[in-house]
Amino acid sequence: MTALTADQMARVKATAPVFAELGPTITKHFYQRMFDAHPELKNVFNQTHQQSGSQPETLARAVYAYAANIDNLGALGGAVTHIAHKHASLNIRPEHYPIVGRHLLGAVVDVLGEAVDQPTLDAWKVAYEQLAQILIGAEAKLYEQASWSGFRPFRVIRKQVESDEITSFYLAPADGAPAGGFEPGQYVSVKRFIDRLGVDQPRQYSLSDAPHGRWLRISVKREAGRGETQPGHVSNLMHDGVDEGAVVHVSAPMGEFTLDRSKATPVVLISGGVGITPMASMLSTLIAEHSARKVAFVHACRNGRVHAFRDWLRGAAATYPDLKRVVFYEQVEADDRAGGDHDFEGRLDLARIADDIVLPDADYYLCGPVAFMREQSAALAARGVDPARVHTEIFGSGMID
């Protein structure tokens, strides 16, 4: 790998603002250009995110962050690890990187034209190759540690409705072998062929049960679509077209948002909506291990109709001696029972429960919509919680997924 010279590093950093202004235009053109040359890659990339424009915007932000910190990659924090896990879950391989690099740089030339000179393009080429090697190395380690390679056939042995929006699928290896292990909080990619698109589409779903080797459980929210938001191709197919006995193809578990099981300190699990799925895995694991750790399980959703795992959580609170359950319903309905189904009406407000859930030396795990996690992270910081103890999971796109 060719090292960046000081001049090249300066060129990349100086042109980073271009991606702040024109990045989405460049990345949207990049995807179209790449798919025209390699239509088979539509089977890897989320086409819903392509249509909505969210994937080009995500890539543009990632490229800008990389370029702006090209002289201090440590400032990117865990972004590289996050992207590597995403890529490994989608089975991104080293041979994909030259294709992406060629068309990304080609898109820069197509959009900017003579505004970018050859030395600057050469600098960006070296910078991209540097990033590619970093990611390839990180992904190679994940593949070495994975329970299996690529997408493995699993049979749906049970399908269970959890709420009006969420249904669980119990998946056992089609060959009868053990399901393999994972860390609570991780996710898998599930790949299905979408007739209306004419391509396979992978989607990532958190595992929602404790690891035990007999099966894997995912709990899928039906994405109905609202306004300009399109319905979820895969989630609707899973709900309506995948029944018990069906075979789906699943990647090995990945993800860095995991419960630290080596600790004995308290755990606070805070979720919104379908963000409850990895929290269910974490709590199930603590129960299965007969852990003595104090646990606070805080969940927010609209009402009882969309409250997944409601009965399970109520039972866990009754049997796990050190578990405190707190549930907020934003729009309480007539059948919702205060003190049984939920504890508070309205949006989740940590100020109302801080005395119970802000615990000394606790680790906090947050999962839900981005705005929800920002709000809860800010509320914890205002209560003096060390940000290093706050762990978040974002459902969304990586750099090239």
From TrEMBL:
Residues 3-140 form the Globin domain. Its EC number is 1.14.12.17. It catalyses: 2 nitric oxide + NADPH + 2 O2 = 2 nitrate + NADP(+) + H(+); 2 nitric oxide + NADH + 2 O2 = 2 nitrate + NAD(+) + H(+). Residues 149-260 form the FAD-binding FR-type domain. InterPro entries: FAD-bd_FR_type, Flavoprot_Pyr_Nucl_cyt_Rdtase, FNR_nucleotide-bd, Globin, Globin-like_sf, Globin/Proto, OxRdtase_FAD/NAD-bd, Riboflavin_synthase-like_b-brl. Its cofactor is FAD; heme b. Keywords: Detoxification, Dioxygenase, FAD, Flavoprotein, Heme, Iron, Metal-binding, NAD, NADP, Oxidoreductase, Oxygen transport, Transport. GO terms for biological process: cellular response to nitrosative stress; nitric oxide catabolic process; response to toxic substance. GO terms for molecular function: FAD binding; heme binding; metal ion binding; nitric oxide dioxygenase NAD(P)H activity; oxygen binding; oxygen carrier activity. The keyword Oxidoreductase applies. Pfam families: Globin, NAD_binding_1. It comes from the Bacteria. PROSITE patterns: FAD_FR (PS51384), GLOBIN (PS01033). Belongs to the globin family. Two-domain flavohemoproteins subfamily. Is involved in NO detoxification in an aerobic process, termed nitric oxide dioxygenase (NOD) reaction that utilizes O(2) and NAD(P)H to convert NO to nitrate, which protects the bacterium from various noxious nitrogen compounds. Therefore, plays a central role in the inducible response to nitrosative stress. PANTHER family: FLAVOHEMOPROTEIN, NITRIC OXIDE DIOXYGENASE. This is Flavohemoprotein. It comes from Paraburkholderia caballeronis.
